[in-house]
Amino acid sequence: MFYKRKGLPEEDEIVLCKVTKLYPNSVFADLIEYNDSGMIHISEVSPGRIRNLRDFVSVGRQIVCKVLRIDRERGHIDLSLRRVNSNQRREKLEEIKQELKAESIVKSVAKRLNKKTSDVYDLVSKKILEEYSHLYLCFYDVAESNADLMKMGVDKDIAKVLTEIILEKFKPERVTIEGEIKLETYASNGVEEIRITLINIEKTSSTISLSYLGAGKYKLIIEDVDYKPAEENLRKVEKILKQFAKDKLAKSEFIREKKD
What we know:
Strand order of the largest sheet: 1-2-3-5-4
CATH superfamily of the largest domain: Translation initiation factor 2, subunit 1, domain 2
Helix content: 25-40%
Low-confidence stretches: none
CATH class of the largest domain: Mainly Alpha
CATH topology of the largest domain: DNA polymerase, domain 1
Number of strands: 9
CATH architecture of the largest domain: Orthogonal Bundle
Strand content: 25-35%
Number of domains: 3
Oligomer: single chain
């Protein structure tokens, strides 16, 4: 993977790691997106008592971790495996998958132009990463005609071929979050409060749609090109639902639909 972030990660950041060493009470791993390594204490591998670390991790295995602490003077990074939930793990793995897909397109460009992949990547990423956190996010915009590589300063010949291949191969797959919202209130103005709550939810983002199921239940669908903005919009929806339920006479609930 060519993609690398500069400096050190932030505390609470979710990172992809590769296990390099196992000791009786700790695990050492390289942070794939950074030029750094970190340590996972045995207590941060999994809840409960661990008799053998090899039952949970192995050298060479890629794992998704959370950054707990950073000693910036010494460059020490403490990581946790057990504090990463399933949504965070899925988001990070999807992010890496899409970035690798973007890098494969850069490789195709280099092959077509008879150039070294690393050289083309450096030229492309230098310009794109000034405006985007990842190449694939820029490629989404290019595919949807919301970005122009030449206007961003990418070499004209590279930009032309890169745009062609993006339009051929980088058709963004939509991700969806679905679930059921339940709203209940015994307040005298309850009908109006529910109406305002539903309007506020729909106004959160154009990627959100609501449909009435009956008996105070509503189908929520969030569709986006990436899990990160989709999850962020879900958090905004949950905040609105929490606000609705502040009234002692009101209740709100969101039941997320599990994916197979």
